[in-house]
Amino acid sequence: xxxxxxxxxxxxxxxxxxxxxxxxxxxxxxxxxxxxxxxxxxxxxxxxxxxxxxxxxxxxxxxxxxxxxxxxxxxxxxxxxxxxxxxxxxxxxxxxxxxxxxxxxxxxxxxxxxxxxxxxxxxxxxxxxxxxxxxxxxxxxxxxxxxxxxxxxxxxxxxxxxxxxxxxxxxxxxxxxxxxxxxxxxxxxxxxxxxxxxxxxxxxxxxxxxxxxxxxxxxxxxxxxxxxxxxxxxxxxxxxxxxxxxxxxxxxxxxxxxxxxxxxxxxxxxxxxxxxxxxxxxxxxxxxxxxxxxxxxxxxxxxxxxxxxxxxxxxxxxxxxxxxxxxxxxxxxxxxxxxxxxxxxxxxxxxxxxxxxxxxxxxxxxxxxxxxxxxxxxxxxxxxxx
Length: 386
Fold this sequence. Notes:
The chain is mainly β. It contains two helices and 28 strands.
């Protein structure tokens, strides 16, 4: 009996120790998703229905292309997430150390992307867990190819759609290691930035995510500013990427075409205007645009805030830098009271310039050229200041 009691006691202690160890390990993680809503997450540039909660999962429609990010930054951490594509050859991604605003003329942000791909292969990508920097980020890959900065996995461990896959992403001082379904297969080093947001990517196909959790690890108390993601701007998208909801069309409606994250106005079909349903008072507006026709027109006459054309707001100011067809430009316009500050690609065009007779509030207006030159818009974002 003593012998049996000893075996029972030893077994109980072993089970108890394993349970305590597992509990201690689990205690280091915090959930990133409560299973009910998207609390703790911010829609950077997607439509209101692109990401939703369905059956306790984060469901992504895939349209438009864009990002859902965490509310806060992370530096050194372990991220665990399960994901699946609902259709073969699906494309998505998980972002680490990400900026909270889109890159110029892009639906994506500066970040290190952990590829979430199903059943697609090429000379320069796989469906097995590639890791690579995008849009101004940098990283030195392990198992890279042709001198590029994409890190390729060392073996295939991915399950096909619609099966679930498990990712464990460990990020420490700029080094990143991805484990696919229980084994590390991809590594990168010396990433920059190395403190930023976590993000889920929408890119053309339906996907689902579950069991998202993060455990923060010890990190240096200070970093060089260049190693930290840019601050959040508090901007909200005003274009869904799938339709013209929130806008009124005056003129030929066929001129305007939602093309995923790009809102296109044709160069033919006559003049046509989009007017926001919402009226804005003091606010900051971001607008990316480019001419896609052969001739570049006067962009200032194609955008109005509070109902006043920017050409009127900038009357008498020096001409803006010359733009080329196909070149994206980013306009930032801050309107507070009767004063406006405008920058184009970081160049100040007007600073706290009084605009006589500007109304206290008004619509955001986009005008098609109607002269044979197509104009495209992207990243239509606004932040209220009143």
